[in-house]
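Request from the bench team (R.T.):
"We need a structural guess for the complex before ordering more nicotinamide-adenine-dinucleotide. Sequence and SMILES attached. Just send the C-alpha coordinates back."

Command: build protein-nicotinamide-adenine-dinucleotide structure.
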Amino acid sequence: MKTANEVVLHDLSYMADCLKSEFLAMSGKRLLITGGAGFLGHYFVQGALHWNRANPSQAPISVVVYDSFVRGMPTWLSGMKGDVNLTLVTHDIRYPLPTDMGDFAYIIHAASIASPTYYKRDPISTMDANVNGLRMLLDYAQSRQEKGRPLEGLLFFSSSEIYGDPSPDHIPTPETYRGFVSCTGPRACYDEAKRYGETLCVNFAHQLNIPVKVARPFNNYGPGLKISDRRVIPDFARDIMADRDIVMFSDGSPKRTFCYSADAVIGYYKVLVKGQKGEAYNIGVETPEISMVELAEKLAAFARDLFGYKGKVIRQASEDVSYLVDNPNRRCPVITKARMHLGYHPSVTLDEGLRRSLIWYQGNRDAQDS
Ligand SMILES: NC(=O)c1ccc[n+]([C@@H]2O[C@H](COP(=O)([O-])OP(=O)(O)OC[C@H]3O[C@@H](n4cnc5c(N)ncnc54)[C@H](O)[C@@H]3O)[C@@H](O)[C@H]2O)c1
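Reply to R.T.: structure attached below.
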Protein backbone atom coordinates (compact mmCIF):
# COMPACT_ATOMS: atom_id res chain seq x y z
CA MET A 1 0.00 0.00 0.00
CA LYS A 2 1.67 3.16 -1.20
CA THR A 3 -1.14 5.67 -1.67
CA ALA A 4 -4.03 6.95 0.46
CA ASN A 5 -6.56 5.39 -1.95
CA GLU A 6 -4.87 1.98 -1.72
CA VAL A 7 -4.98 2.16 2.08
CA VAL A 8 -8.70 3.01 2.10
CA LEU A 9 -9.60 0.32 -0.45
CA HIS A 10 -7.64 -2.28 1.48
CA ASP A 11 -9.42 -1.30 4.73
CA LEU A 12 -12.87 -1.37 3.11
CA SER A 13 -12.30 -4.92 1.80
CA TYR A 14 -11.05 -6.01 5.24
CA MET A 15 -14.18 -4.53 6.85
CA ALA A 16 -16.50 -6.23 4.33
CA ASP A 17 -14.78 -9.57 5.11
CA CYS A 18 -15.15 -9.16 8.86
CA LEU A 19 -18.73 -7.87 8.70
CA LYS A 20 -20.38 -10.39 6.35
CA SER A 21 -23.27 -11.31 8.63
CA GLU A 22 -23.77 -7.76 9.96
CA PHE A 23 -23.99 -6.17 6.49
CA LEU A 24 -26.26 -9.00 5.34
CA ALA A 25 -28.57 -8.24 8.29
CA MET A 26 -28.76 -4.62 7.06
CA SER A 27 -29.25 -5.54 3.39
CA GLY A 28 -32.30 -3.83 1.84
CA LYS A 29 -32.81 -1.65 4.93
CA ARG A 30 -32.32 2.01 5.82
CA LEU A 31 -29.44 3.02 8.06
CA LEU A 32 -29.28 6.51 9.62
CA ILE A 33 -25.85 7.79 10.69
CA THR A 34 -25.89 11.05 12.65
CA GLY A 35 -22.49 12.77 12.53
CA GLY A 36 -21.69 10.67 9.45
CA ALA A 37 -19.42 13.42 8.06
CA GLY A 38 -16.96 12.92 10.93
CA PHE A 39 -13.93 10.72 11.41
CA LEU A 40 -15.78 7.50 12.23
CA GLY A 41 -18.39 8.33 9.58
CA HIS A 42 -15.58 8.01 7.03
CA TYR A 43 -15.54 4.20 7.42
CA PHE A 44 -19.17 3.81 8.55
CA VAL A 45 -20.48 5.36 5.34
CA GLN A 46 -17.86 4.02 2.94
CA GLY A 47 -17.93 0.57 4.57
CA ALA A 48 -21.66 0.09 3.87
CA LEU A 49 -21.48 1.58 0.35
CA HIS A 50 -18.45 -0.57 -0.50
CA TRP A 51 -20.37 -3.67 0.63
CA ASN A 52 -23.23 -2.65 -1.70
CA ARG A 53 -20.85 -2.41 -4.66
CA ALA A 54 -19.11 -5.69 -3.81
CA ASN A 55 -22.42 -7.57 -3.43
CA PRO A 56 -24.60 -6.53 -6.37
CA SER A 57 -26.86 -9.59 -5.95
CA GLN A 58 -27.94 -8.41 -2.47
CA ALA A 59 -30.45 -5.62 -1.85
CA PRO A 60 -28.36 -2.51 -1.03
CA ILE A 61 -28.08 -0.86 2.35
CA SER A 62 -29.56 2.64 2.05
CA VAL A 63 -27.37 5.07 4.02
CA VAL A 64 -28.72 8.41 5.23
CA VAL A 65 -26.39 10.92 6.93
CA TYR A 66 -27.69 13.65 9.23
CA ASP A 67 -24.92 16.11 9.99
CA SER A 68 -24.77 19.81 10.82
CA PHE A 69 -21.42 20.00 8.97
CA VAL A 70 -20.26 22.22 11.82
CA ARG A 71 -16.73 20.97 11.08
CA GLY A 72 -17.12 21.31 7.32
CA MET A 73 -18.05 18.98 4.43
CA PRO A 74 -15.16 16.54 3.93
CA THR A 75 -14.06 15.91 0.33
CA TRP A 76 -14.42 12.13 0.68
CA LEU A 77 -18.15 12.66 1.41
CA SER A 78 -18.87 15.34 -1.20
CA GLY A 79 -17.15 13.03 -3.70
CA MET A 80 -19.79 10.33 -2.99
CA LYS A 81 -22.82 12.51 -3.65
CA GLY A 82 -23.71 10.61 -6.86
CA ASP A 83 -24.18 7.27 -5.05
CA VAL A 84 -27.89 6.38 -5.25
CA ASN A 85 -27.70 4.60 -1.90
CA LEU A 86 -26.45 7.68 -0.04
CA THR A 87 -28.57 10.63 1.12
CA LEU A 88 -26.98 13.63 2.84
CA VAL A 89 -29.20 15.80 5.03
CA THR A 90 -28.07 18.98 6.77
CA HIS A 91 -29.59 18.57 10.20
CA ASP A 92 -28.47 19.68 13.65
CA ILE A 93 -29.30 16.85 16.06
CA ARG A 94 -29.91 19.30 18.92
CA TYR A 95 -33.19 20.26 17.23
CA PRO A 96 -36.38 18.25 16.50
CA LEU A 97 -35.97 15.52 13.90
CA PRO A 98 -37.36 16.09 10.38
CA THR A 99 -41.03 15.04 10.28
CA ASP A 100 -40.55 13.17 6.98
CA MET A 101 -37.66 10.95 8.06
CA GLY A 102 -39.52 7.70 7.30
CA ASP A 103 -38.66 4.26 8.67
CA PHE A 104 -35.11 3.38 9.65
CA ALA A 105 -34.15 -0.16 10.68
CA TYR A 106 -30.82 0.95 12.18
CA ILE A 107 -29.54 4.20 13.69
CA ILE A 108 -25.99 5.13 14.69
CA HIS A 109 -25.84 8.28 16.84
CA ALA A 110 -22.29 9.60 16.36
CA ALA A 111 -23.11 13.34 16.10
CA SER A 112 -20.90 14.96 18.73
CA ILE A 113 -17.53 16.56 18.31
CA ALA A 114 -14.91 14.19 19.70
CA SER A 115 -11.81 16.42 19.77
CA PRO A 116 -11.40 18.07 23.22
CA THR A 117 -9.99 21.24 21.62
CA TYR A 118 -13.21 21.71 19.62
CA TYR A 119 -15.87 20.36 22.00
CA LYS A 120 -14.63 22.60 24.83
CA ARG A 121 -15.26 25.69 22.66
CA ASP A 122 -19.04 25.11 22.80
CA PRO A 123 -19.74 22.94 25.84
CA ILE A 124 -23.51 23.50 25.80
CA SER A 125 -23.81 22.23 22.21
CA THR A 126 -21.68 19.24 23.19
CA MET A 127 -24.10 18.36 25.99
CA ASP A 128 -27.16 18.98 23.82
CA ALA A 129 -25.99 16.73 20.97
CA ASN A 130 -25.39 13.84 23.38
CA VAL A 131 -28.39 14.28 25.64
CA ASN A 132 -31.21 16.06 23.74
CA GLY A 133 -30.17 14.62 20.37
CA LEU A 134 -30.09 11.11 21.80
CA ARG A 135 -33.43 11.63 23.55
CA MET A 136 -35.12 12.61 20.27
CA LEU A 137 -33.76 9.49 18.57
CA LEU A 138 -34.95 7.31 21.45
CA ASP A 139 -38.41 8.93 21.25
CA TYR A 140 -38.42 8.21 17.50
CA ALA A 141 -37.56 4.57 18.27
CA GLN A 142 -40.38 4.41 20.80
CA SER A 143 -42.90 5.87 18.33
CA ARG A 144 -41.84 3.28 15.74
CA GLN A 145 -42.35 0.57 18.32
CA GLU A 146 -45.84 1.85 19.13
CA LYS A 147 -46.69 1.76 15.42
CA GLY A 148 -45.64 -1.89 15.25
CA ARG A 149 -42.57 -1.13 13.09
CA PRO A 150 -39.75 -1.45 15.64
CA LEU A 151 -36.14 -0.53 14.97
CA GLU A 152 -33.68 -3.41 14.83
CA GLY A 153 -30.81 -1.51 16.44
CA LEU A 154 -29.81 1.92 17.75
CA LEU A 155 -26.17 2.56 18.66
CA PHE A 156 -25.20 5.37 21.03
CA PHE A 157 -21.61 6.56 20.98
CA SER A 158 -20.41 6.94 24.52
CA SER A 159 -16.69 7.18 25.27
CA SER A 160 -13.86 5.73 27.35
CA GLU A 161 -13.94 9.22 28.93
CA ILE A 162 -16.87 8.07 31.07
CA TYR A 163 -14.27 6.25 33.19
CA GLY A 164 -12.43 9.54 33.85
CA ASP A 165 -8.95 9.02 35.24
CA PRO A 166 -8.99 5.50 36.74
CA SER A 167 -6.57 4.59 39.52
CA PRO A 168 -3.83 2.07 38.49
CA ASP A 169 -5.72 -0.88 40.03
CA HIS A 170 -8.58 -0.22 37.55
CA ILE A 171 -6.32 -0.43 34.50
CA PRO A 172 -6.97 -2.20 32.18
CA THR A 173 -10.55 -1.02 32.60
CA PRO A 174 -13.57 -3.34 32.26
CA GLU A 175 -17.14 -2.19 31.55
CA THR A 176 -18.03 -2.78 35.21
CA TYR A 177 -15.73 0.05 36.45
CA ARG A 178 -17.88 2.99 37.55
CA GLY A 179 -15.51 5.84 36.80
CA PHE A 180 -13.62 8.63 38.49
CA VAL A 181 -14.87 11.75 36.74
CA SER A 182 -15.16 15.48 37.44
CA CYS A 183 -18.69 16.83 36.90
CA THR A 184 -17.54 20.46 36.62
CA GLY A 185 -14.07 20.39 34.97
CA PRO A 186 -13.34 21.51 31.38
CA ARG A 187 -14.05 18.02 29.97
CA ALA A 188 -17.23 17.47 32.01
CA CYS A 189 -19.55 18.74 29.23
CA TYR A 190 -18.45 15.70 27.23
CA ASP A 191 -17.86 13.08 29.93
CA GLU A 192 -21.02 13.74 31.91
CA ALA A 193 -23.20 14.06 28.79
CA LYS A 194 -21.94 10.64 27.68
CA ARG A 195 -22.65 9.24 31.15
CA TYR A 196 -26.21 10.59 31.21
CA GLY A 197 -26.64 9.40 27.62
CA GLU A 198 -25.81 5.88 28.78
CA THR A 199 -28.35 6.19 31.61
CA LEU A 200 -31.00 7.17 29.06
CA CYS A 201 -30.10 4.16 26.91
CA VAL A 202 -30.22 1.63 29.74
CA ASN A 203 -33.63 2.84 30.87
CA PHE A 204 -35.18 3.02 27.39
CA ALA A 205 -33.93 -0.54 26.86
CA HIS A 206 -35.26 -1.88 30.16
CA GLN A 207 -38.49 0.09 30.53
CA LEU A 208 -39.57 0.34 26.88
CA ASN A 209 -37.67 -2.56 25.27
CA ILE A 210 -35.90 -0.28 22.77
CA PRO A 211 -32.97 -2.13 21.10
CA VAL A 212 -30.41 0.51 22.05
CA LYS A 213 -26.79 -0.46 22.62
CA VAL A 214 -23.76 1.54 23.72
CA ALA A 215 -20.18 1.63 22.43
CA ARG A 216 -17.31 3.01 24.53
CA PRO A 217 -14.49 3.83 22.09
CA PHE A 218 -10.89 3.88 23.30
CA ASN A 219 -8.72 6.24 21.21
CA ASN A 220 -9.37 5.50 17.57
CA TYR A 221 -7.08 6.80 14.83
CA GLY A 222 -6.56 6.25 11.13
CA PRO A 223 -7.83 7.36 7.71
CA GLY A 224 -10.61 9.95 7.96
CA LEU A 225 -9.24 11.65 11.09
CA LYS A 226 -8.43 14.99 9.56
CA ILE A 227 -5.03 16.50 10.05
CA SER A 228 -6.50 19.63 11.68
CA ASP A 229 -8.55 17.67 14.25
CA ARG A 230 -6.25 18.47 17.19
CA ARG A 231 -6.15 14.92 18.50
CA VAL A 232 -2.64 13.63 19.17
CA ILE A 233 -1.93 11.47 16.09
CA PRO A 234 -3.10 14.06 13.52
CA ASP A 235 -1.19 16.75 15.48
CA PHE A 236 2.04 14.74 15.18
CA ALA A 237 1.26 13.92 11.54
CA ARG A 238 0.73 17.61 10.80
CA ASP A 239 4.23 18.38 12.09
CA ILE A 240 5.68 15.54 10.02
CA MET A 241 3.89 16.61 6.83
CA ALA A 242 5.16 20.19 7.36
CA ASP A 243 8.67 18.73 7.78
CA ARG A 244 9.17 20.36 11.20
CA ASP A 245 9.92 18.89 14.63
CA ILE A 246 7.11 16.95 16.35
CA VAL A 247 5.77 19.10 19.22
CA MET A 248 4.47 17.37 22.36
CA PHE A 249 2.20 19.41 24.63
CA SER A 250 2.64 17.09 27.65
CA ASP A 251 5.76 15.71 29.35
CA GLY A 252 5.21 12.65 27.16
CA SER A 253 4.26 10.36 30.04
CA PRO A 254 0.45 9.84 29.58
CA LYS A 255 -0.22 6.39 28.15
CA ARG A 256 -2.86 5.16 25.71
CA THR A 257 -3.77 2.14 23.63
CA PHE A 258 -4.72 3.14 20.07
CA CYS A 259 -7.25 1.28 17.93
CA TYR A 260 -7.08 1.57 14.12
CA SER A 261 -10.29 2.96 12.61
CA ALA A 262 -11.09 -0.03 10.38
CA ASP A 263 -10.95 -2.37 13.40
CA ALA A 264 -12.94 0.08 15.53
CA VAL A 265 -15.73 0.52 12.96
CA ILE A 266 -15.97 -3.27 12.62
CA GLY A 267 -16.51 -3.35 16.39
CA TYR A 268 -19.18 -0.63 16.28
CA TYR A 269 -21.15 -2.36 13.51
CA LYS A 270 -21.02 -5.54 15.58
CA VAL A 271 -22.37 -3.71 18.65
CA LEU A 272 -25.17 -2.21 16.52
CA VAL A 273 -26.30 -5.52 15.03
CA LYS A 274 -25.34 -8.13 17.64
CA GLY A 275 -25.06 -6.20 20.92
CA GLN A 276 -27.53 -6.88 23.72
CA LYS A 277 -30.05 -4.12 24.33
CA GLY A 278 -29.11 -1.85 27.22
CA GLU A 279 -25.49 -3.15 27.26
CA ALA A 280 -22.26 -1.18 26.88
CA TYR A 281 -19.15 -2.54 25.13
CA ASN A 282 -15.56 -1.31 25.29
CA ILE A 283 -14.18 -1.07 21.75
CA GLY A 284 -10.44 -0.64 21.42
CA VAL A 285 -7.29 -2.73 21.80
CA GLU A 286 -5.64 -4.03 24.98
CA THR A 287 -2.02 -3.70 23.85
CA PRO A 288 0.38 -2.04 23.37
CA GLU A 289 -0.15 0.69 25.95
CA ILE A 290 2.37 3.36 24.94
CA SER A 291 3.38 6.78 26.21
CA MET A 292 3.02 9.91 24.10
CA VAL A 293 6.79 10.21 23.76
CA GLU A 294 7.01 6.61 22.49
CA LEU A 295 4.19 7.36 20.06
CA ALA A 296 5.95 10.47 18.75
CA GLU A 297 9.25 8.59 18.36
CA LYS A 298 7.52 5.73 16.52
CA LEU A 299 5.81 8.11 14.09
CA ALA A 300 9.10 9.95 13.48
CA ALA A 301 10.87 6.64 12.73
CA PHE A 302 8.13 5.46 10.32
CA ALA A 303 8.13 8.86 8.59
CA ARG A 304 11.92 8.61 8.18
CA ASP A 305 11.43 5.23 6.45
CA LEU A 306 8.51 6.33 4.31
CA PHE A 307 9.40 9.90 3.33
CA GLY A 308 12.96 10.60 4.57
CA TYR A 309 11.60 12.81 7.41
CA LYS A 310 14.43 14.46 9.38
CA GLY A 311 12.66 16.10 12.34
CA LYS A 312 12.95 15.23 16.06
CA VAL A 313 10.54 15.20 19.04
CA ILE A 314 10.42 18.38 21.17
CA ARG A 315 8.32 19.57 24.13
CA GLN A 316 6.34 22.83 24.34
CA ALA A 317 3.50 24.18 26.53
CA SER A 318 0.11 24.37 24.79
CA GLU A 319 -1.47 27.81 24.29
CA ASP A 320 -4.67 26.26 25.66
CA VAL A 321 -4.15 26.44 29.46
CA SER A 322 -6.81 23.76 30.06
CA TYR A 323 -5.24 21.38 27.49
CA LEU A 324 -4.11 18.86 30.10
CA VAL A 325 -6.68 19.51 32.85
CA ASP A 326 -8.48 16.24 33.71
CA ASN A 327 -6.53 14.50 30.93
CA PRO A 328 -6.42 10.82 32.03
CA ASN A 329 -2.91 9.49 32.74
CA ARG A 330 -3.63 6.06 31.33
CA ARG A 331 -6.37 4.61 29.19
CA CYS A 332 -6.48 0.93 28.37
CA PRO A 333 -9.57 -1.29 27.99
CA VAL A 334 -10.53 -4.84 28.80
CA ILE A 335 -12.32 -5.99 25.60
CA THR A 336 -13.24 -9.53 26.66
CA LYS A 337 -16.97 -8.73 26.55
CA ALA A 338 -16.87 -7.63 22.89
CA ARG A 339 -14.55 -10.53 21.98
CA MET A 340 -16.78 -13.16 23.63
CA HIS A 341 -20.25 -11.79 22.83
CA LEU A 342 -19.72 -10.14 19.44
CA GLY A 343 -16.75 -11.91 17.86
CA TYR A 344 -14.77 -8.66 17.84
CA HIS A 345 -11.10 -9.42 17.13
CA PRO A 346 -9.10 -6.31 16.16
CA SER A 347 -6.06 -7.37 14.15
CA VAL A 348 -4.30 -4.31 12.68
CA THR A 349 -1.12 -3.79 14.74
CA LEU A 350 -0.19 -0.33 15.99
CA ASP A 351 2.90 -0.22 13.76
CA GLU A 352 0.90 -1.18 10.67
CA GLY A 353 -1.93 1.24 11.54
CA LEU A 354 0.49 4.13 12.06
CA ARG A 355 2.20 3.43 8.73
CA ARG A 356 -1.16 3.34 6.93
CA SER A 357 -2.19 6.56 8.68
CA LEU A 358 0.97 8.37 7.57
CA ILE A 359 0.41 7.25 3.98
CA TRP A 360 -3.19 8.49 4.23
CA TYR A 361 -2.04 11.84 5.69
CA GLN A 362 0.43 12.26 2.87
CA GLY A 363 -2.51 12.20 0.45
CA ASN A 364 -4.78 14.23 2.77
CA ARG A 365 -2.49 16.87 4.21
CA ASP A 366 -4.80 19.83 3.63
CA ALA A 367 -7.78 20.32 5.93
CA GLN A 368 -9.40 23.47 7.22
CA ASP A 369 -9.16 24.36 10.92
CA SER A 370 -12.85 24.02 11.74
N1 LIG B 1 -12.86 8.81 17.58
C1 LIG B 1 -12.67 8.42 18.84
O1 LIG B 1 -11.58 7.96 19.22
C2 LIG B 1 -13.80 8.54 19.82
C3 LIG B 1 -13.53 8.29 21.16
C4 LIG B 1 -14.56 8.38 22.06
C5 LIG B 1 -15.85 8.70 21.63
N2 LIG B 1 -16.09 8.95 20.32
C6 LIG B 1 -17.47 9.31 19.93
O2 LIG B 1 -17.77 8.78 18.66
C7 LIG B 1 -18.61 9.69 17.93
C8 LIG B 1 -17.99 10.03 16.61
O3 LIG B 1 -16.65 10.48 16.83
P1 LIG B 1 -15.77 11.08 15.64
O4 LIG B 1 -14.36 10.83 16.04
O5 LIG B 1 -16.26 10.62 14.33
O6 LIG B 1 -16.09 12.64 15.83
P2 LIG B 1 -15.86 13.87 14.82
O7 LIG B 1 -15.70 15.08 15.67
O8 LIG B 1 -14.79 13.54 13.82
O9 LIG B 1 -17.22 13.93 14.00
C9 LIG B 1 -18.42 14.33 14.60
C10 LIG B 1 -19.42 14.66 13.50
O10 LIG B 1 -20.62 15.06 14.17
C11 LIG B 1 -21.10 16.23 13.56
N3 LIG B 1 -21.86 16.96 14.57
C12 LIG B 1 -21.40 17.53 15.72
N4 LIG B 1 -22.40 18.11 16.39
C13 LIG B 1 -23.53 17.89 15.65
C14 LIG B 1 -24.90 18.23 15.82
N5 LIG B 1 -25.31 18.94 16.88
N6 LIG B 1 -25.79 17.85 14.89
C15 LIG B 1 -25.38 17.14 13.79
N7 LIG B 1 -24.09 16.81 13.56
C16 LIG B 1 -23.19 17.18 14.50
C17 LIG B 1 -19.87 16.98 13.07
O11 LIG B 1 -20.19 17.87 12.01
C18 LIG B 1 -18.97 15.83 12.62
O12 LIG B 1 -19.21 15.51 11.27
C19 LIG B 1 -18.81 10.89 18.85
O13 LIG B 1 -20.01 10.73 19.56
C20 LIG B 1 -17.64 10.82 19.79
O14 LIG B 1 -17.93 11.44 21.01
C21 LIG B 1 -15.09 8.89 19.41
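Two things stood out. The chain has a mean pLDDT of 95. The pocket of nicotinamide-adenine-dinucleotide is lined by residues 34-35, 37-41, 67-71, 92-94, 110-115, 129, 157, 159, 217, 219-220 (CB under 6 Å).
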